[in-house]
Amino acid sequence: MESQTEESKCFSVNYHDDIYNIYDFLNNHHHPGGINYVKSYEDKDITKRMQKVQHSKAALYLLRQYKKGGRDTSTKDNQDDLESLVDWEQPILGQVMALGSKYKEWVNLPIDRKVRFFGNPVVEKLTMTPWYLIPIIWIPIAVIFIMYGRQTYVEITGDTSYVPIALSVLFGILLWSFSEYCLHRWLFHFEPSGKYKFVIYFHFVLHGLHHKLPFDKRTWIFPPQFAVFFVYGKFSIFRIIFPESIVFQVLAGALLGYILYDMIHLYVHKCAPKEGSYLYYLKRRHNQHHFANSQAEFGVSSGFWDIIFCSNIKLRKLAIPIKF
């Protein structure tokens, strides 16, 4: 796929007598079955295969976007095309609140296209956060927390050992892993009622836009200007829960866990990990979350809590490894 020239970026399949060019979807490493399971179907009819494999509603809906000549708006799969509910040529955030009861269905049906979030060009620019700003901003802050926490620990306890410091940081990382799962499952994926417009807006800005636009790079990492509120919230809670002697170390660990989460989330969307690696396993799970069942596989940096809370998907055994 990578060897194709700019002019020949085409991977066509026939579905219900229409032609679809799914090159971008495959080349962006997002197909849960990988390129190698699909490449034998190039220029062939996939209708029976799609029915046999029982693709999700989200997957069938996404396929509409790649119809040659423009988006497929038919009802061949017994589902309406909901994209007429919004004007994609206009900023999207100002429109979602008007979707009402249709929002819940609309937001869980992904599309692949360019979009503008805000009408104000300056605010729109702020949504474009380079990935490297995450470690550049947050790692020094985590180090400062550790150093200050170490000083505070020694002053309060008189203990100069580094072991409690290290254990507190590790505990913070573990605590983030649990928080990541809880936030993703019960906050990011709460079901907004169509009754309150501000709730719809909050849901879309928080996480809905990532499921609606999973290929938009701006939705792959959490912008620091918004993450600062979560960090402050965690610090306020930690100061109540943990002794003053270790609170900064635990917070530093949680912050390091968050950085790791953000970088893993970016990687599993953007890259093609090697078969058998931990990141390969995480990418398979996260693709299932986006394109098979958005109510499962909530852990991004780990699958541990999904197993504990029975929200994991049993990945099928493969005859040959997936090549993303």
TrEMBL record:
Q: Where does Zn(2+) bind?
A: 184, 189, 207, 210-211, 265, 269, 286, 289-290
Q: Mind telling me what this protein is named?
A: Fatty acid 2-hydroxylase
Per the entry, the cofactor note is: Binds 2 Zn(2+) ions per subunit that likely form a catalytic dimetal center.
Membrane topology, from the record: Multi-pass membrane protein
Tell me the ranges covered by the Fatty acid hydroxylase domain, including all copies: 169-309
What role does it play?
Plays an essential role in the synthesis of galactosphingolipids of the myelin sheath. Responsible for the synthesis of sphingolipids and glycosphingolipids involved in the formation of epidermal lamellar bodies critical for skin permeability barrier.
> Where does it localize?
Endoplasmic reticulum membrane
Enzyme class, broadest EC rank: oxidoreductase
